[in-house]
Amino acid sequence: MFKRNIHYKGTMKLNSWKKLAMGTWSPPGDPSVYTLLEIDARGILKKIEEFKAAGKSLTPTTILAKALAMSIESYPLINSTIRFGRIYERSTIDLFLQVSDPNAKDVEDLSGLKIERANERSLEEMGEIIKNSAKKIRAGNDPQYKKIKKSMKGVPGIFMRPLILFLDFFL
């Protein structure tokens, strides 16, 4: 019925500080911004120009996604989840990027795309995945997007949060 979309390497050993932290903190309930960061984008713009001169396309989103994948690879604990008092490290570094569909008929829709094994991909590969997946979603040709959209349309708003929490727990 459900397809598991995350695969784990196994559990991590917990020291006393990690156990204390897990017993003290509760999972976040709402998304929050804790830090704003200003960066000098000259290096990014230079890289984009290099690609353009070589006849290739590159966007800031692709560069930032690659940087995020490399950061996660450098600190694998970030790529973990906590279940039943244990930390499980994911076996691959997969990224999810949001895609806005401004062409939706009634209101603007928000979907997303998944880049599997993002740390192992080149900027060119990531750029192609992002471009092609976003194009499919915006054109209404992504079967997974259609399926999720159709399924969610029938769920009353009052039941959406419990449903998401249920799916988050089991998937």
Distance between the termini: 11 Å
Please state the average pLDDT score.
85
Helix count, DSSP H or I runs of 4 or more residues? 6
Structural class of the secondary structure composition?
alpha+beta
Number of E-state strands: 5
Helix content: 40-55%
What radius of gyration results from the CA coordinates? 19 Å
Biggest sheet details: 3 strands, antiparallel
Strand order of the largest sheet: 1-3-2
Sequence of secondary-structure elements: EHHHEEEEHHH
Low-confidence stretches: none
Q: Name the beta content range.
A: 15-25%
Shape descriptor reads globular
Description:
By secondary structure, the protein is α+β, with helices and mostly antiparallel strands. Helix content is 46%, strand content 16%. The protein is built from 6 helices and 5 strands; from the N terminus they run E-H-H-H-E-E-E-E-H-H-H. It has helices at residues 16-24, 42-53, 60-74, 123-139, 143-153, 157-170, and strands at 8-11, 80-83, 86-90, 95-101, 109-115. It has a 3-stranded antiparallel β-sheet with strand order 1-3-2, with no helix packed on it. A two-stranded antiparallel sheet has the order 4-5. The longest helix is centred in the last third of the chain and has 17 residues, at 123-139. The mean pLDDT is 85.
